[in-house]
Amino acid sequence: MDKNLVSSVESITQYKVNARETCRYPESGFVVTLHGFDIKADSVEDVDKCIKAVMHSQVPMPYDMIRERLAVLATLVIKPSGEAEEDVDIRMKSLATKLGEFPADIVSYAIQQVERTQKFWPSFAEFYTHISWRVKKREYLMRDLYKLRLDLTASLQ
Known about the structure:
This protein is mainly α. The protein contains six helices and two strands. Helix 5 packs antiparallel against helix 6.
């Protein structure tokens, strides 16, 4: 989705979007840190179209759908010992509420990754490791589009 989103911005503006990143190479591999995006546009209208596209990508997954996905996950992992059905229900409600704060495609991906990697019922932190950096990309994209809009508006006055 993120590549498609950047591609949409490029299509609307007719300019390439460049990510501002730094790479570090610690002993255990490499770490890429995103700082933002360099975005160009010729009009405020084009920027507004881009902002609208990014906003559409921020729509959360409906609560009931998250609950269904968590119910499936519950059948695939080992639940905590001594936990009653009411406890599982409370845990699922809490997770569904927290996951409902994030874009649907990112939550879907996070649930899928947790299904594939966890043996025991996961904490929110285990989902968030798959969510945080993806959300940060969209936040930076939106921030930089708003900055571009402000710059273009200021240049018109």
